[in-house]
Amino acid sequence: MMKLEQNSLGMASTVLPSRDRGGLAQPLLSVRGLHKHFIIQKSGFGQQAKRVHAVDGVDFDVMKGETLGIVGESGCGKSTTARLLMRLLTPDSGELVFDGDTVGARGGISLREMRRQVQMVFQNSYASLNPRMSIEDSIAFGPEVHGLKRTEARKRARKLLDQVGLAPNLYANRYPHELSGGQRQRVNIARALALEPRLMILDEAVSALDKSVEAQVLNLLVDLKQEYGLTYLFISHDLNVVRYISDRVMVMYLGKVAEMGDTEALYEAPAHPYTKALISAMPSMDPNQRTSKAPLAGDPPNPIDLPQGCRFSPRCPVAIDACHIEEPPLAPCGEKHSTACLRAEAVMHDRAQVIATNQELS
Amino acid sequence: MNQTAEIVAPQQDQPLVQVSGLEVRFKSPDRTVHAVNGVDLTLKRGEILTILGESGSGKSVTLRTLMRLLPERRTQLKGQVSVDGRDVLAMPQRELRRFRGRTAAMIFQEPMLAFDPVFTIGQQIAETVCRHEGVSHKEGLARALELFELVRIPSARRRLANYPHELSGGMSQRAMIALALSCRPRLLLADEPTTALDATVQIQILLLLRELQRELDMSVIFVTHDMGVANEISDRIAVMYGGRIVETGKVGEIIAQPRHPYTLGLMNSRASGELKGQRLEAIPGSPPDLATLPSGCAFAPRCPYAIDTCHDSVPIAHTIEGQHWAACHRLEQTQP
């Protein structure tokens, strides 16, 4: 199943092949206590600093060969998490362990090496390509920087273009503005693959595409994953797409993990009231069963002034007094399923009584 | 209210919006973009119609034509557009100003961009009311408060004094709906109003629009690319592709029994939990370039059923049942 040992492009390479080290049981990436606060107003004269709690203590593992989906609304910290993993942002605190090696620490794996093994695809396909470089140059750039010979790098670029469905002799010399959105996103995927990464972070990579093109790119991602034995971190706000592609799903709310579990278990029986609300807020596809009541009122609050106790408690339809006092930790609530909710048991079995009707946040 | 009802009554059975043979071209020195290529559309009073389509399908352009919001100098318009019995394309500027806001109003995808950042929301709504209805500023403010309560903004009085940047995404979309409704329009045009919103907020706005439409007995044309949203909001759906309507029918007919290969393709390519582990039936290729539109059916190059006729001639609409029709040469291939 895992063919990581092989040079998957099947050609001589001076770039070191990425090796599997700890075996399947060892997570490919372990994240512990990840924090990132953005200070928007400095402290002074008895005033506390105003800070955005973008990522506020996140722990998770990405297993080898899986697709982990991250969902949440704007401001929940899903994109910040992705940028922290790539070190495009420096975390305030937290530890990253990549296949057993601590990233950036003594005796661990260097940042440069980690970045070769972890690649990212962004939402805006146009902004992430250099407008003055041809498609071929863009893809060959990474391997060249990492020490591959120019001719080799170009050969690899052409092979990858072919693999993502763009005929090299037609497209290799074109520039980003000459391609459609779907084609550009294919180029971005090819560029990410050029370094033979083991982990791909896809940050809303299909969200900006038209529906008819989205399916093509999803198919491509599934094919590539199989062929190269990749691991995906798939970030999206589209719950249908996440359900389709992910093995496990992590739901974030205001910078923390609300719930995490196997996709089907989580969609079938969500244990966190927020997950439940997200799922029932999905537009129905049955004309005879339209949604008649919105599951939550108000907008997601901004992550500057966090509420006391559980962050979701002010919007939560099933909150009890204890919820407003203490923040619940992420705790197991089933097999490979964990949630940060005091009332998980009741929510999962649909026994939670709606105590407070939703109050609008103002 | 009674007064308006009397005036409207004689033409009640006439459709509110009637578009026929609409063509829109954008000219620039080096190319002509064929954005809309012959659209026929009718909208009954009190009906919600959704125009469903991808980027570049001409859905937003069609919507903007109904209020004549397109840049006059670069745009070539052909065909007839009548709203509430008036010819929109022939209207002089003066009348157009009265028409916008009173007969038809529009809401957009980015509510933040629709407001002036240096005035409070209340002032902006009051100004609109004063301007169109000739009432005092005080009455305008009272009407603004009424509108805020209508769109269910909590602590409405306090919110009126807010500046646009102080409102969250969902709240500013509600405020924009209030602004659009300020002169009691008969027709509300909505251009992807929920696309930029979070999932839990999107459903609130959709439900609000549905309720308001019933309460105020408005007609609504809603533009979206999301089939789920179309299903939630509409009575009828029109699917657009390459600047033409390719299929239209009641929401149940389009969602449950689509017949045009493009609509079918859209339905089948939706990712969902049930398809996990299977390949998605994606539509091959990409949407057409509107500057070099194919001579026949615009969907033919991507269509699995296309034959030579499809590449040569543009198909006309074939009725399937009642109001459900599709423009396709190969409808017998898509029979369920």
Short description:
With 362 residues, chain A is of the alpha/beta class. Helices cover 28% and strands 20% of the residues of chain A. An 8-stranded mixed sheet of chain A has the order 6-7-8-3-9-10-12-11, with helices on both faces. In chain A, strands 2-1-4-5 form a 4-stranded antiparallel sheet.
Labels describing this entry:
heterodimer; A: 362 residues; alpha/beta; Rossmann fold; 2 domains; 8-stranded mixed β-sheet; 4-stranded antiparallel β-sheet; 11 helices; 12 strands; globular; disordered N terminus; disordered C terminus; B: 336 residues; 13 helices
H and E string of chain A: EEEHEEHEHHHHEHEHEEHHEEH
Cα Rg of chain B: 21 Å
Low-confidence stretches of chain A: 1-16, 356-362
- What is the assigned CATH homologous superfamily of the largest domain in chain A? P-loop containing nucleotide triphosphate hydrolases
Give the count of helical stretches of chain B.
13
Largest sheet of chain B: 8 strands, mixed
What is the helix content of chain B? 25-40%
How many H/I helices of chain A?
11
- The level 1 CATH classification of the largest domain in chain A is Alpha Beta
Give the integer mean of the pLDDT values of chain A: 88
Overall pLDDT metric of chain B: 91
Taken together, the total number of domains of chain A comes to 2
Our estimate of the beta-strand percent of chain A is 15-25%
CATH architecture of the largest domain in chain A: 3-Layer(aba) Sandwich
Q: What is the number of E strands of chain B?
A: 12
Rough outline of chain A: globular
Report the β-strand fraction of chain B as a percent range: 15-25%
Largest interface: A-B, 49 and 48 residues
Physical arrangement of strands within the biggest beta sheet of chain A? 6-7-8-3-9-10-12-11
Structural class by sheet pairing and helices of chain B: alpha/beta
